[in-house]
Amino acid sequence: MKNIYTTILLLFAAFSSNYAQSQEATFPEALKEHLNRYNIKSNDAFANREIQKGQIMFDSLVSHHLIGTTFEDYTLKSFEKRKVKLSSFKKPVFILTYATWCIPSKGEIPALNKLAQKYAKDVQFVILFWNKKYEVKQIARKFNHNITVCYAHETYKRDAIIVAHLKHTLGFPTSYFLDQNLKVVNIKRGGAQPDNKSSYVKAYTLNYNVFREGLSSLLIEKNISDEQLTTN
């Protein structure tokens, strides 16, 4: 009995140590250590059309290895303000990665604009396009002034790190939810994806609720009340 108790304590200590290490790791370090194994298993799942299994594996990667890690203080090229460091926002950050050839679903941009208007004081909204600046010009106008529209591209020398860490790892569209210290609170892949037959109102509502659910973890940390969270 004593040996069993000792073994349990040792396992718990090892788990606690690994958990603590994961909490202290940077986001790029965690990706380097765990992404390869995830990709192999995930590719097999999707090749076998096991979509739900693939999503469960993604959620497991995020919850066990990425949440609690710290983003690098990336310098982004803002469409309006040239360059901005993530740390300069001084509040939680929601980053959504896009590309101009990956068309947002019906109602998606209006839903993001509404949420940004509502929570701009508490969360910094950032849309990051994997494009050159001139390719972003037209779509950037569709986002309101509460959203910072940025861009990055492989051919821009100073973008190599952020492209390697964010674009060529978890894909896009991907949502990153960071606290004010740039620690990962959550990561979600994709949006609501309403079908083509959905009405605009239904599509808008689905997108609004999906993004609001992701934002809730940041807003709760800021002590936003449940009533404020559920009021459109």
From TrEMBL:
Keywords: Signal. Residues 65-206 form the Thioredoxin domain. Pfam families: AhpC-TSA. SUPFAM superfamilies: Thioredoxin-like (SSF52833). InterPro entries: AhpC/TSA, Thioredoxin-like_sf, Thioredoxin_domain, Thioredoxin_ResA/DsbE_sf. Residues 1-22 form the signal peptide. It comes from the Bacteria. This is Thioredoxin domain-containing protein. It comes from Flavobacterium hankyongi.
